């Protein structure tokens, strides 16, 4: 079967969005990670548009933390031409438990599962094609990366069958890592234990391999980024703005910056490096934004410099402040000439007085 013949009629998609997103705090105190604006749109919108582009319309969201936010925003999905249903876990059941928990909503025989925080360019149909062609019970999307040490590694044999599912190691035997997207035959989901936390990575996949079941790898080297840390979130957003990471939701936008409706940019302000300015945000004269992610309603005053930093909803950055590699929580107020460098995180609503924090003695 070639990819043009790939059948998605009997395919449903499940997206796991129940994580707490601790690595992205404090932004994830007020919004779940998959709802954070990325290139100005909730991250999940990019993933949903990618699934929709593959012709898959039936989608189940496995929620736990802040579940109401998803339903409020996406409703039944009809505005995007999708049919979205929601299954809530009152206690987080982990990745495997989350998949098992949505079983009552699954009517298709083939189920495509996504982690809700991965930015990826791979054609969804090609992964399903590999699954249908190989006859496997489960197919894992595996991506080749230059430094696999920070990820779970998944070696495959010459036929493409998965031979092991390894935890992070300093000496990885392969550059193929788990990309956080899987195709399951429905019967495998039925066999996941019910009603208790289960990890798909630590329990389900190793268990299937130990039983000698057919788990296949779909390997490629396309664009891939786990958006779980501030550094990756900033890079991923900039890659979307610049068109390096594809997203059907951005309708071919490609440029050094993206300014959303209702935002204003003062004279002489410089926006580069994939900077995004959210709705209603204000950028003052002469400000310099390089790889900045400015959420809706934030204010950056004149002459401020913001590099590789996320500025939360309604936050204010005072005149001539310098923020580099930072995370500024919603509604925080950073005084004039403050300097925040190297991973500084400011909690929501915190107010720093003018010149209150400096890394230099410049006036
Ligand atoms: P960190 O706390 O920063 O590690 O983030 P996280 O909680 O999102 O965990 P992780 O990045 O490992 O999760 C991968 C994906 O699985 C994300 O899309 C999560 O939303 C989702 N996820 C993690 N745990 C659960 C869970 O217990 N239930 C459900 N439904 N989804 C989960």
UniProtKB/TrEMBL annotation:
Pfam families: GMPPB_C (PF25087), NTP_transferase (PF00483). One of its GO terms (molecular function) is nucleotidyltransferase activity. It comes from the Bacteria. Belongs to the transferase hexapeptide repeat family. Residues 13-240 form the Nucleotidyl transferase domain. PANTHER family: SUGAR-1-PHOSPHATE GUANYL TRANSFERASE. Keywords: Nucleotidyltransferase, Transferase. This is Mannose-1-phosphate guanylyltransferase. It comes from Williamsia limnetica. InterPro entries: GMPPB_C (IPR056729), Mannose-1P_guanyltransferase (IPR050486), NTP_transferase_dom (IPR005835), Nucleotide-diphossugar_trans (IPR029044). Residues 255-348 form the Mannose-1-phosphate guanyltransferase C-terminal domain. Transmembrane segments: none annotated.
């Amino acid at each position: 079967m070639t990819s043009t013949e790939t059948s998605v009629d009997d395919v449903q998609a499940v997206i796991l969005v129940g994580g707490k997103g601790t690595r992205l705090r404090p932004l994830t105190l007020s919004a779940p990670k998959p709802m954070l604006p990325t290139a100005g749109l909730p991250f999940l919108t990019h993933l949903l548009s990618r699934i929709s582009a593959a012709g898959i319309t039936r989608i189940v969201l496995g929620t736990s933390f802040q579940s109401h936010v998803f339903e409020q925003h996406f409703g039944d999905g009809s505005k995007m031409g999708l049919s979205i249903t929601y299954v809530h876990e009152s206690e987080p059941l982990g990745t495997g438990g989350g998949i098992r928990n949505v079983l009552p909503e699954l009517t298709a025989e083939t189920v495509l599962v996504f982690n809700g925080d991965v930015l990826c360019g791979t054609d969804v149909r090609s992964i399903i094609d590999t699954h249908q062609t190989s006859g496997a019970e489960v197919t894992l999307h595996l991506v080749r990366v230059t430094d696999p040490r920070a990820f779970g590694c998944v070696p495959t044999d010459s036929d493409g069958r998965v031979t092991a599912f390894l935890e992070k190691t300093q000496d990885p035997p392969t550059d193929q890592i788990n990309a956080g997207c899987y195709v399951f035959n429905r019967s495998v989901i039925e066999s996941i234990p019910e009603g208790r936390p289960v990890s798909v990575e630590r329990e389900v996949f190793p268990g299937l391999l130990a039983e000698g079941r057919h788990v296949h790898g779909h390997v490629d080297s396309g664009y891939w980024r786990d958006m779980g840390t501030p550094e990756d979130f900033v890079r991923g957003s900039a890659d979307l703005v610049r068109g390096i990471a594809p997203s059907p939701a951005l309708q071919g936008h490609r440029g050094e910056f993206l300014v959303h409706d209702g935002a204003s940019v003062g004279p002489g302000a410089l926006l580069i490096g994939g900077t995004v300015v959210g709705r209603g945000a204000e950028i003052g004269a002469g400000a310099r934004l390089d790889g900045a992610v400015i959420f809706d309603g934030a204010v950056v005053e004149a002459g401020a410099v913001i590099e590789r930093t996320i500025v939360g909803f309604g936050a204010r950055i005072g005149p001539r402040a310098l923020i580099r590699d930072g995370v500024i929580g919603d509604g925080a107020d950073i005084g004039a000439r403050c300097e925040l460098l190297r991973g500084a995180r400011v909690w929501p609503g915190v107010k720093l007085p003018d010149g209150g924090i400096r890394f230099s003695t410049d006036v």
